TrEMBL record:
Highest taxon above the source species: Bacteria
Keywords for this protein: ATP-binding, Nucleotide-binding
Residues covered by the ATP-grasp domain: 128-309
Lineage: Bacteria, Bacillati, Actinomycetota, Actinomycetes, Kitasatosporales
Protein name as annotated: ATP-grasp domain-containing protein
Organism of provenance: Streptomyces bugieae
Length: 334
């Protein structure tokens, strides 16, 4: 059985459809269903292997037969709305985390990606340092919640040549990457409320590099002629998108980078300067790929489904896909 941890979104559904068409048994659970709308059972007796089952409005499965699990996208737990106080809500979420993550961590299966490593790899300062160590080139960067330090950085790099961005861009709180304009200088005191990423602006074409196991799918996204070339995510429908082949040395470096992070899947964002050199921005361990696949024909969904199916058949995967027992499973909960 292939376990999928995610919610209703096209990437998951397309891959599940491919797996089911190939005769694979798949059980998908949205962690946001627990505990208010889901049932967790862990039944252990007489020294036998525990019987672990999960039930939600859309799925029910015993986890005993799980050989591979896809840690795709995680949402916070939903507690019963009759719990009125923050203390009670926090207690319910904490207890759910202990039970559910404990059961998942105990599974004798291969994770794509291992949840604990996936959680750590989401942190940009960490991935930046790993990227630097493997030889990737990064833009000049400052993370600070000190307005004076931000002002000095902008003065040094230049107004109109510095961008600022958030660490996470949720649909509920979207923040696009923006160039610092003269009018923004009057609002720099707001930096004190939370750390902000400031970077030198790198001209050139974006590249989304999707790594699935040992396969690398690269696409160029040229937003230079669009209405907002600073952040291709906001104008991807206007951008020119085409498949490209990376230099072999860069491909090898990116694969080594993901191995250092312990990731099997990752969506890497690069930019190619006009002189042909490459600059690394970030890797998203749960990044999207369908917008690339639809525009280029790159068979990314088929490769994700194939990797899960092959791992299910063998009961094993590349070393970096194995859960590390000594590392705690990190859950992102409310």
């Amino acid at each position: 059985m292939i376990l999928v941890i995610s919610y209703d979104e096209d990437h998951t559904l397309d891959v599940i459809g491919r797996l089911e068409a190939a005769g694979r048994e798949v059980a998908r659970f949205d962690l946001a269903d627990f505990p208010a709308h889901g049932v967790i059972n862990f039944d252990s007796s007489d020294g036998n292997q525990p019987v672990c089952t999960l039930t939600t409005p859309s799925a029910e499965a015993s986890l005993a037969g799980c050989r591979v699990a896809w840690w795709r996208r995680v949402r916070p737990f939903t507690v019963d709305p009759t719990l009125r106080t923050a203390r009670d809500q926090g207690f319910a979420a904490s207890e759910t985390s202990q039970a559910l993550y404990g059961m998942l961590h105990a599974l004798d299966c291969t994770w794509i990606n291992p949840p604990s490593l996936d959680a750590v790899a989401h942190h940009k300062p960490y991935q930046w340092e790993v990227a630097r160590r493997v030889g990737l080139v990064l833009p000049r960067t400052l993370v600070t919640n000190q307005p004076e330090r931000a002002r000095r950085f902008i003065e040094d790099v230049g107004v109109g040549r510095t961008v600022f961005k958030s660490f996470l861009a949720h649909a509920e709180a979207w923040r696009e990457t923006r160039l610092v304009r003269p009018r923004d200088l009057a609002h720099l005191d707001a930096v004190r409320y939370a750390p902000v990423i400031f970077q030198e602006f790198v001209p050139g074409a974006d590249l989304r590099v999707t790594v699935v196991g040992e396969r690398v799918f690269a696409a160029e996204i040229d937003a230079s002629a669009t209405r907002y070339p600073v952040d291709m995510r906001t104008v991807v429908d206007e951008a020119r998108v085409r498949p490209v082949t990376l230099p072999p040395a860069l491909t090898d470096t990116l694969l080594r980078f993901l191995r250092r992070l312990g990731l099997v899947y990752g969506a890497v964002d690069l930019r190619r300067r006009p002189d042909g050199s490459y600059v690394f921005f970030e890797v998203n361990p749960a990044g999207q790929w369908l917008f690339v696949e639809h525009r280029t024909g790159l068979p990314i969904s088929a490769e994700v489904a194939g990797l899960l199916a092959r791992t299910d058949a063998r009961g094993e995967a590349p070393d970096r896909a194995r859960a590390v027992a000594s590392r705690p499973l990190v859950g992102r909960t409310a």
